[in-house]
Amino acid sequence: MSTPDQEVTGKQLYAYQHAAIERIFEKLKDHPKRYNLLYQLPTGGGKTVIFSEITRRYIRETGKKVMILTHRLELCGQTSAMLEEFGVSNKIINSAVKELPVPNDFMCYVAMVETLNNRLRDQILSLDNIGLMIVDEAHYNSFGKLLRFYEKGVVLGVTATPLSSNVNIRMKDTYDELIVGESISSLVEQGFLAKAITYHYHVGLTSLKVGRSGDYTVSSSERLYNNLAMQDKLLAAYKEKCIGKKTLIFNNGIATSEYVYATFQEAGFQVKHLDHNHSPKERREILDWFRTKPDAILSSVSILTTGFDEPTVECIILNRATKSLTLYYQMIGRGSRLLPNKKEFSIIDLGNNLQRFGLWDEYVDWNAIFENPEIYLEGIPSDEFIERNYRYEMPEALRALFTKSADIEMNIFNVHKQVMAEGQRPKMVIDLSMQQHVQMCTENSSSLDEALHLADVLKDEIEYRIRCYGRCLAKTSESYVKWLQDEYKRTLKVKLIHNSHYAGGSV
Asked: Domain 187-380 carries which CATH code?
């Protein structure tokens, strides 16, 4: 029977990792049988390193075997390789393994949950000799089906987010206790994770639908994010904040990712698209390209949220909205790896995720979420609430284009209240707003071409004003608001073209 070497070379454990391991072993000593323990640590904090050392030490101290569970095949290979670095000989149980030789000298096994469940159901394997079961990405809660085969040993779940991916399952119902590791802000401060610079671009999300999974449906997301206006907003955000940086774009739906690919390719950027329909060979080729090209852009869905580690990523674009806290952290975590020449990374949020969950490095009370997930979920702001409380602020760079205008602001709600008090038609609000925008574009330009350009850059403000106007009218459909926004933009340009100020100017 082979056992891990007592001394592991070539692998450094940091102080916070040592501390976590000691806390976990104290619990294991107190509960040698039938105790389910959950450990939380942010993405990039080294969860695999920690549970690999736990595996090595557990086998050495107890002489009992360890089973490590993952939810994806590629994670099995990555986990197995890390275990080998720690001197832990292990066996991957995959679809090719139909039976195990008896006797065998492996003290550690790595398996996908579904594969292991099939082998146990077919009575090819037994968990009777397993003392410790480690569940990676424990928030998926998929290992619960194995518990009927595993009644004597201890379970250690590890996750970055101790909130079940299934809204109908509480992690507290599966695990007896939660141990919270280092926070993101602490890991950033200590120099273990890169600092995030977040840019938020407001998107109206009230058209999105929530499916049975508790997250936004692909179909409603694609209807919103596939339209030309959203593609333009995405491209403009990239050019403004991330151009020249290695960029990973997350979308909700393959069709959207393909649209993103086409948009960036047409704009002349080096970009590729990746989804689960690509063959393993195609996937390897695309990821190799992404790794080696400094300014590469990769558009994907959720295939790269786990099991993908590319430290050179400098910009994460959330071209989607999600109601999943776990997914939010997983996506951003792809950019948080630290390098000697990479201390920061950028986040571009195009799904109001910042308003929903807060900044990536903000404090999160994981114990409270673990104990009462329902209270946390109920407290997540709705899209309607976010929309109602959104206040547009003209960016400084845009404000600089209108320096000749003394007044560029207008509170639509206050104007509407005044118009109604004077007994005028509601449309007067639009007329007053239009007058202000015509004046702004006129007095800050010397030609019609310049004025029309200024009208274009006012697009976000115009859309915000019209959304506010729609709320003033109470029962207003989304399609009517969209039509009114387009009509406003068109009318503004028509008024500028016919403005005598530009007599003789070019169009």
From this structure: 3.40.50.300
